[in-house]
Amino acid sequence: MTTKSATKCDVKDLSLAKEGLLRIEWAAREMPVLRLIQQRFAKEKPLKGLRLAACLHVTTETANLVIALKAGGAEVALCASNPLSTQDDVAAALATEYKIPTFAIKGEDNETYYKHINAVLATAPHMTMDDGADLVATIHKEKQELIKGIIGGTEETTTGVIRLKSMARDGKLRYPIVAVNEADTKHLFDNRYGTGQSTLDGITRATNVLLAGKNIVVLGYGWCGRGVAMRAKGMGGHVIVTEVNPVKALEAVMDGFEVMPGVEAAKIGDIFVTVTGDISALDWQHSR
């Protein structure tokens, strides 16, 4: 059930806020660099007067990011980029404890998802922060009157960067976007280490399978693929990599992984993880 408060929001249950606050504070202990930035922002207020619209995973980590942005003087409005990753207690805490307009409900349907996107865009943002480029796409398709007031934006995932580069090539991208996904720190640390751990954690929680001894097929050997393969091997899995780029395929071999075409891996794989940022990495042809 959606609950409202003085701070404009649309979250599942505001009574979850205290639990969410504890989890946000716990996550902050593991984010020392962001904490230092927040302390500096609180003094210098470099974002004073700016409105930010963010469409990101509504988790404890994102919570600390938007809290830091608010400390810097920004007016931040947040919605969920993936309804399945939303943490309802965190959304409630942001809306009540930090007075940040938050629009996110775990498992929300498509209609609600876009209602929430429009809610953050109703703030007439100066900047956008995207994970998947849905904010940018909505602005360009339905809210073009906002473009004149937008300074720029950020995009932090491969899928979104692909969409934005396509728009830029076609001359349709009407304000600058920083591809955070292409930063070295994103590749070397978040993708390689964070994605590997969180992906296998998600598989374990969802299936309760023992990874040791399983044939784990990693489709794509970019930075995320490296991370998943590394962690899967560490859990005792037999890792098989599929990769269309010959250089990356050779790199996977040199890293100690078996490499084969996807149709061959499909015959013997137990667990499949697609980490390409593109479509059809795992398709009907693999089910034959």
Provide key terms for this protein.
288 residues, alpha/beta, 7-stranded parallel sheet, 11 helices, 11 strands, disordered N terminus
Could you walk me through the main structural features you see in this protein, from its secondary elements to its overall organization?
45% of the residues lie in helices and 15% in strands. It has helices spanning 17-28, 32-44, 60-71, 88-96, 110-121, 134-142, 158-169, 184-207, 223-234, 246-254, 262-268, and strands spanning 10-11, 51-56, 75-80, 102-104, 127-130, 152-155, 177-179, 215-219, 238-242, 258-259, 271-274. The strands form 2 sheets. It has a 7-stranded parallel β-sheet with strand order 1-4-3-2-5-6-7, sandwiched between helices. The relative contact order is 0.09. It is globular and about 55 Å long. By secondary structure, the chain is an alpha/beta fold.
